[in-house]
Design goal:
By secondary structure, this protein is mainly α. Helices cover 66% and strands 2% of the residues. The chain is globular. It is a multi-pass membrane protein.
């Protein structure tokens, strides 16, 4: 799906702003890009951002929306800003760092893999995927492919990529920030499932009975 110029500009600006916060945390452009793992992390960040432009996802409130769940976006925004700045900062000053370069590259790999998992379902759902908890026009359930195993693969990808980002900076503080995202994400999942259950009734209830929320065999 071809992105609009406005969306492309907004995505590029947001990506640059996020990277700028991380660079500020590290203490400057040259120091930030002095390590190849951070260069790789940056390349992955922009590759994922460009791919997201063609996914078809949106932030439409659609036909029905659970507006009471919008607080989740604000919390994720605050945690996201902290995760952009604090991990590079704590890595630079050597506060609560984890291991060495192996951890950095593990983080880059998790960021890339989680980012792909985050976007994959968005490409599958297209316009049915919204950043809001909402039912879109023509909304139908997708219960095949990865959705035949777990109901929220994009959220799992979000957590994995978030963990990958902070581990690329060896940040123990970042790991705590990622863990703080879990209860907020669970609240989002519960709101989304309640809306889908109300919209699709027994069809969705049956789907839930044979799938896992995010981790097969665990959750």
């Amino acid at each position: 799906m071809r992105p609009t110029p406005g969306l492309a500009i907004a995505t590029l600006a947001g990506t640059l702003a996020y990277l700028a916060i991380a660079i500020a945390g590290w203490g400057g452009i040259a120091p930030f890009f002095a390590h190849p793992a951070r260069v790789a992390l940056t390349l992955v960040l922009f590759a994922l951002s460009i791919a997201a432009l063609f996914s078809g996802g949106n932030i439409s409130s659609g036909m029905r929306e659970d507006r009471g769940n919008r607080w989740v976006l604000a919390v994720f925004g605050v945690l996201g800003l902290l995760a952009a700045y604090l991990p590079p900062f704590t890595d630079r000053i050597g506060f609560w760092t984890l291991d060495g370069d192996t951890m950095r590259w593990t983080g880059v790999a998790l960021f890339a893999g989680g980012g792909v998992l985050r976007l994959w379902p968005v490409f599958v759902l297209g316009r049915r995927f919204s950043g809001l908890v909402a039912i879109q026009p023509g909304h139908t359930l997708v219960t095949t492919g990865i959705y035949g195993v777990i109901r929220h693969p994009s959220y799992l990808g979000f957590l994995v990529s978030s963990l990958g980002w902070v581990l690329a900076f060896r940040s123990g503080v970042g790991v705590v920030l990622t863990l703080l995202m879990v209860p907020v994400l669970v609240a989002r999942i519960r709101a989304e499932e309640a809306l889908l259950r109300d919209q699709f009734g027994d069809e969705y209830a049956s789907y839930c009975d044979r799938t896992w929320r995010m981790l097969p065999g665990i959750y």
